[in-house]
Amino acid sequence: MELSRHSSIILSITIVTTFVSFVKSSLPQGLQTLNISSEISTDPNITASFATDFGNLFNCTPGAVFYPSSPNDIATLIRFSYTSSKPLPISQRGRGHSTYGQTLVPDGILIDMSSLGHTNYSRINVTEGPFPYADVGAEQLWIDVLNATLKRDLMPRMLTDYLYLTVGGTLSNAGISGQEFKQGPQISNVYELDVVTGTYI
């Protein structure tokens, strides 16, 4: 059936759960033996660029920045943290729009979620039909989700007023905007979430 006007969609989002500790720690030696070690940077110039967020109230330099290429890479890091004699502080960051240091992880590992979008396959997949939905990576910007759905004459039921935020970032804060009185917050329009833990997919 061809759609003649914008229809609502439900979002399925991949979100990462992490355990953040603000206790000072050094990176464990075994980290460099993992098969993801080439995706981890301890370059001071890189870590310094991730030391603050949009709020610019705190300055906490991570011990390393992790550029995963898949959710399994993140699972490997989380599993390593679970099995370490001293848990490794981990946090994730989309585009750094948090305002009160929520994603900062002093001396821990900061996961740069935007690197998941640098793959050979799309992380925004729109499905049409009686119940259309979009399967979207947490690192994707809402503006890109909107543009992908508009190509199919669809659009998300609920959008934040500013669209250059990541899907995972707004959902972690419920996703509230001026449209909430009609459709509820963004999180109420999510069909399912894929949560990355230490278990491999």
TrEMBL record:
It holds the Pfam family FAD_binding_4. It comes from Rhynchospora pubera. Residues 58-201 form the FAD-binding PCMH-type domain. Keywords: FAD, Flavoprotein, Oxidoreductase. Gene3D superfamilies: 3.30.465.10, Uridine Diphospho-n-acetylenolpyruvylglucosamine Reductase, domain 2 (3.30.43.10). Belongs to the oxygen-dependent FAD-linked oxidoreductase family. Its cofactor is FAD. One of its GO terms (molecular function) is FAD binding. This is Cytokinin oxidase/dehydrogenase.
